[in-house]
UniProtKB/TrEMBL annotation:
Pfam families: Hydrolase_4 (PF12146). PANTHER family: HYDROLASE ALPHA/BETA FOLD FAMILY (PTHR43194), PEROXISOMAL MEMBRANE PROTEIN LPX1 (PTHR43194:SF2). Residues 52-174 form the Serine aminopeptidase S33 domain. This is Lysophospholipase. InterPro entries: AB_hydrolase_fold, Carboxylesterase_BioH, Hydrolase_4. It comes from Microbacterium testaceum (strain StLB037). The lineage of its organism: Bacteria, Bacillati, Actinomycetota, Actinomycetes, Micrococcales.
Length: 320
C-alpha cells in the first residue's frame, strides 16, 4: 500500500500515487485523492456506509472540494481519481488524456478500489462521473455488474454531439484514421465557450499549468475512435446493474460563436440526446434536468447549483 501525502486542495485533502506500469511514453500512474471526513459525520452521518469514487471528464482533473464536502458532511467517504495522463497523473512527454480504448482505465479504477477497500469493509460503492468520466464509469459498471451500489452521472458524454446517425456516419472515417495515424491531429472539439461560461458565473478554477487549458487538450483519432466505440456500446444497450441518476442541464446551446445563453446551458453536449442515451444504461434510471445548469451542473450559477445538489441529495437519501 502506498503513502498518503498532502494534496494541492489543501487542508482536509490527501493524495496517493497509484503505479500502473509503463507504456510507449514511459511511466504511467493514476492519482487517488481523498477528502478527510468530519469525525462526527463519519460516526453518525446518514451516509456513513457509502464510499464515493469520482472520475473527472475530458481535459480535466478533480478540484471540486464542495462536492467532496457534500458527501463527507453526511458521513460518506469521498475519493476522486485523476486518471492516467490527466491532472496530478501527468508525466513529462505524455500525450494528455490519450488512450486507445476506454477499458484501459479498468486498471486505474481497480487500483483506486484496492486502496479504498470498499468491498473488504462491506461498504457500498457509489460511482460519480462527469462527462467522459461518466461514459468511462458506465462502461466499467456494465462490465463489472454487482460491484457498484449506485451510479451518479453528471452530464455524461453518452452520445456524440452529431447524434446517433452522425456518429454512425463518422465512425468509419475516424477508425480508418485511428489505424493509420492514431496520434495525428484533428479539429479542436472545444472552442473555449464552456470555460468562459464558468469564468463568467464565477466557478472557473485556478488550475496548475497545463492541467485544464482554456480550449482543452488536443484530440487525436485513436482517442476519438475509443470514445465513439464507447458511445456505440451504450447505444446498443448496457446494464450497469444498479440504479443510476443522470444530472443534465435543461437546455443546450450549440454555436460556433459565443452566446450569452451559454452561461446557463450546456455548451458542450446535446443534452436531449444524452437523456435518450441514458435510458439504455440500466433498468432504473432517474434523469434530473437542471434549469440554468452548465455542462458541469455543480459548477453552475448558485440557483442551478443548489438545484443540482438538492436533486443529488434527495436521490442518495433514497438509497441510504
Amino acid at each position: 500500500m502506498g503513502e498518503w501525502h498532502p494534496d494541492i486542495l489543501g487542508e482536509g485533502f490527501e493524495q496517493q500515487t497509484l503505479p500502473l506500469g509503463s507504456d510507449d511514453e514511459g511511466e504511467v500512474v493514476a492519482t487517488l485523492v481523498r477528502a478527510m471526513p468530519h469525525p462526527g459525520a463519519r460516526l453518525f452521518g446518514a451516509w456513513r456506509d457509502l464510499d464515493v469514487l469520482y472520475v473527472h471528464g475530458w481535459s480535466d482533473y478533480f478540484f471540486q472540494a464542495d462536492l467532496a464536502r457534500f458527501f463527507t458532511d453526511r458521513g460518506a467517504r469521498f475519493y476522486a481519481l485523476d486518471l492516467r495522463k490527466y491532472g496530478r497523473s501527468i508525466r513529462p512527454g505524455q500525450t494528455r488524456g490519450y488512450v486507445l480504448a476506454l477499458d484501459v482505465y479498468d486498471a486505474d479504477i481497480e487500483a483506486a478500489l484496492d486502496v479504498m477497500g470498499t468491498e473488504a469493509r462491506g461498504r457500498r460503492l457509489v460511482l460519480l462521473g462527469h462527462s467522459t468520466g461518466g461514459l468511462t464509469l458506465t462502461l466499467w459498471a456494465a462490465r463489472h455488474r454487482g460491484r457498484a451500489h449506485a451510479l451518479v452521472l453528471n452530464s455524461p458524454w453518452l452520445e456524440l454531439q452529431l447524434g446517433p446517425l452522425g456518429r454512425q456516419a463518422l465512425a468509419p472515417i475516424v477508425n480508418a484514421r485511428a489505424r493509420l495515424d492514431p496520434r495525428g491531429g484533428q479539429l479542436a472539439l472545444d472552442l473555449g465557450f464552456y470555460g468562459r461560461a464558468q469564468r463568467e458565473v464565477g466557478t472557473l478554477p485556478d488550475s496548475p499549468e497545463g492541467w485544464r487549458p482554456p480550449r482543452a487538450f488536443p484530440t487525436h483519432p485513436g482517442w476519438l475512435a475509443a470514445v465513439i466505440a464507447g458511445h456505440a456500446r451504450v447505444a446498443s444497450g448496457v446494464d450497469v446493474g444498479c440504479p443510476a441518476l443522470v444530472l443534465l442541464s435543461l437546455r443546450s446551446t450549440t454555436s460556433l460563436t459565443w452566446n450569452d445563453a451559454m452561461r446557463e446551458t450546456d455548451s458542450v453536449l446535446v443534452v436531449d440526446d444524452i437523456a435518450r442515451a441514458a435510458t439504455r444504461i440500466a433498468r432504473t434510471v432517474t434523469i434530473a434536468r437542471i434549469d440554468g445548469a452548465l455542462h458541469d451542473v455543480f459548477l453552475s450559477a448558485p440557483d442551478a447549483q443548489d438545484a443540482a445538489y438538492a436533486a443529488l441529495g434527495n436521490w442518495v437519501r433514497g438509497l441510504a
